[in-house]
Specification:
Blueprint: H1 2-24, H2 31-58
Keywords: Membrane, Transmembrane, Transmembrane helix
Length: about 60
C-alpha cells in the first residue's frame, strides 16, 4: 500500500516536471521534444491507472 502511494507521488512529480518543460520551451525549435514529453505523460498516466487497478485488486485477495 505504502509502495503504491510512493509510486504515485513519484509519477506525479515526473509528470509535473514534463508539463513544466512543455510550457517553458519555445515551440518552434523543439516540437520533437514536446512530442516525446507528451508520450511520457501518456505512459505515466497509463502506469498510474495500471497501478491503481493492480493495488485495488490486490486488496480483495
Amino acid at each position: 500500500m505504502l509502495l503504491g502511494i510512493l509510486l504515485q507521488i513519484y509519477i506525479n512529480k515526473t509528470l509535473n516536471e514534463n508539463l513544466k518543460n512543455i510550457e517553458f520551451w519555445p515551440v518552434g525549435r523543439s516540437i520533437p521534444r514536446i512530442r516525446l514529453n507528451n508520450e511520457s505523460y501518456i505512459f505515466g498516466m497509463a502506469a498510474l491507472i495500471f497501478f491503481i487497478l493492480v493495488f485495488g485488486l490486490l486488496q480483495f485477495f
